[in-house]
Amino acid sequence: MSANETRQQIVEAADRLFYERGFEATSFADIARELGLSRGNFYYHFKTKDEILDAVIRHRLETTRDMLDAWERDIRSPAERIRSFFRILIANRTRIMAHGCPVGTLCNELAKLDHAAKADAARLFALFRSWLSGQFSALGRAADADALALHVLMRSQGVATLATAFHDERFIRREVADLEAWLHDQCPDASLPPPRRSP
To answer: Would you say the pTM of this structure is higher than 0.90?
Structure first.
């Protein structure tokens, strides 16, 4: 295995452990043990946990950009792209119910620690905010596109937080249906199917 491949494996393992256990609770030894790496091999790639955190944040930004780029490429309608964002909650429901939103949990933890990387982690939310705002602008809502984007982020974070607290998959599905109905109300000319209101 090449050095680059080993480094990438470390970043991916750290990303998962930071999400599942938290940044502060995850040690070098935890990550090395996960991969079966010797301490020397591990330290060849990363000298400090903050270096790993920086790499994890960059990795998350890259994978998020790749996902958003794929939606731009493969989905013609801005409204359908926004619905794809809503449906992340359903696609990732098992992990969200177990550990919360990966972006929200990391931002919250780093803010509590007053960690130097807290602003870098918040760039993940900023990326979603900018992308959602662009979709709403494309739907003719340029004047309030940013406010609508923030509303979507607020609702999705609330759903993730309560889903973690209550472990209720039906709640997630109901809230996603409500978000889709809300989107239809905001953009009635966007050729969306009729809304499915939750009972």
So the answer is: yes
Is residue 46 a part of any domain in this protein?
no
Measured between alpha carbons, how far is 37 from 168 in angstroms, rounded to an integer?
A: 38
32-41, 45-54, 154-163: least confidently modelled range = 32-41
* Number of independent structural domains in the chain: 1
Instruction: Indicate whether 90 belongs to any domain.
Output: yes
Asked whether residue 20 is assigned to any structural domain, the reply reads no
